[in-house]
Amino acid sequence: MKAVRIQWRGPLKVGQFPSTLEEIGALGLNGPGIYLLMMRYPQTTVVYVGKASYLEHRIREHLANYMGFRYALRSENPPPGTEKEAYCLKSPQREGFARYNDLRASMEDAIREVELIEVYYCRCDNGVGSEHYDLSLPLPALTPSGIIKELEASLIHAVKEVAFPENGLTSDKRPITSDNFRRESRKHLFETDTDAFLQWLREKASL
Question: What's this model's pTM, rounded to 2 decimal places?
Answer without folding.
Answer: 0.91
